[in-house]
TrEMBL record:
CDD domains: PseudoU_synth_EcTruB
Active site (catalytic residues): 52
Keyword Lipid metabolism part of the UniProt annotation: no
Designated name of the protein: tRNA pseudouridine synthase B
Alphabetic keyword roster: Isomerase, tRNA processing
Catalytic activity: uridine(55) in tRNA = pseudouridine(55) in tRNA
Top-level taxonomic group: Bacteria
GO molecular function terms noted in the UniProt entry: tRNA pseudouridine(55) synthase activity
InterPro entries: PsdUridine_synth_cat_dom_sf, PsdUridine_synth_N, tRNA_psdUridine_synth_TruB, TruB_C
Similarity remark: Belongs to the pseudouridine synthase TruB family. Type 1 subfamily.
Entry EC no(s): 5.4.99.25
Amino acid sequence: MTAEDLQSGHIFLLDKPLDWTSFQAVNKMKYKLKREFNLPKKFKIGHAGTLDPRATGLLIVCCGKFTKKIPEIQDAPKEYWTEIKIGVQTESYDTEKPEILHQDISNITEELVYQVLEKFVGEIEQKPPVFSAIKIDGERAYNLARAGEEVEMKSRKTTIFYIKEVKINFPLVSFTVGCSKGTYIRSLAHDIGQELGVGAYLTQLRRTKIGDYKIEDATDEFLNNDFRFESL
């Protein structure tokens, strides 16, 4: 790999670690690439689809002329491995905030869970979480929410292509979900809990596919302090 290769265009498949923001991962890549290949100050680099800090998995980073591919990649279908906990909720719909509103789940059966999951396959209406990167009047929704301001999120249409590989070990339910661009799996977890009547929140999330790109081909080595690109 050379500086000319990178500026002509390259795609990196990262396995984003837990508690990293997508912005941090891209910045780390940018710093390493610029330092090791003596790239210009305005070297272009960006990711093709945000992953929440509490999520892991596939983060696609495009650099050089391949940054033009970002909108196309962002539009591709996504796949996630998902784990939710039923009978309790959090304000963030994931593990960022503490558990609240505990409810009895003794009447929830495996059959009911399967029935409810099936209801979410197809085109659905979904409200993004208030703790999200969506901009409201120029400000990120999560900044407003963390400042204690009341945030009203508008619902939007999204598509769930499939929910499969369901495993139930109450209060935990895990499954693989395929979805369209713009789907919030945290909101899906919350909405499943509301449909069950006992609440739920997202405990684990791992993105496994974006279009034809797969997590099996991704690495987190680029984010290690001792990694050098010359070893590729």
